[in-house]
Amino acid sequence: MKTCYFCVLGDSVLTKTRVPIDQRALLARANRALAAENFVLRKTKGRKARPTLGEFYLLNTKTAGIAETHINLEEFCRKRGVLKEYETLAE
Fold first, then answer.
1. Which pLDDT tens digit goes with each residue over 14-68?
2. Half-sphere exposure of 15 toward its Cβ, with a 13 Å CA cutoff?
């Protein structure tokens, strides 16, 4: 697979850098991609639900049921092709 990075010239040396993507923007991208499959990715609200659902969970919009819990946002988006190689989740 071809490696693609944005390059920045600094101190006469070409260095590879990654473009930071905000968590909110990445979540919106993921939900646009998942809409055709009748799923939506949600962020858990409140401390009580977090041990059960994790920080993010996948909701089936047809059945209103939880399809997947404890989702790592960055890994999930990379697998689905929403987050490109040259991008990274901003801290």
1. 557 889 999 999 999 999 999 999 999 999 999 999 999 999 999 999 999 999 9
2. 9
Cβ(56)–Cβ(71) below 8 Å: yes
Structural domain boundaries in the chain: 21-89
- CA dihedral of 31, 63, 66, 76, whole degrees rounded to 10: -30
**Distance (Å, whole) CA 87 – CA 91:** 12
Burial of 87 (0-12, 13-18, 19+ CB in 10 A): buried
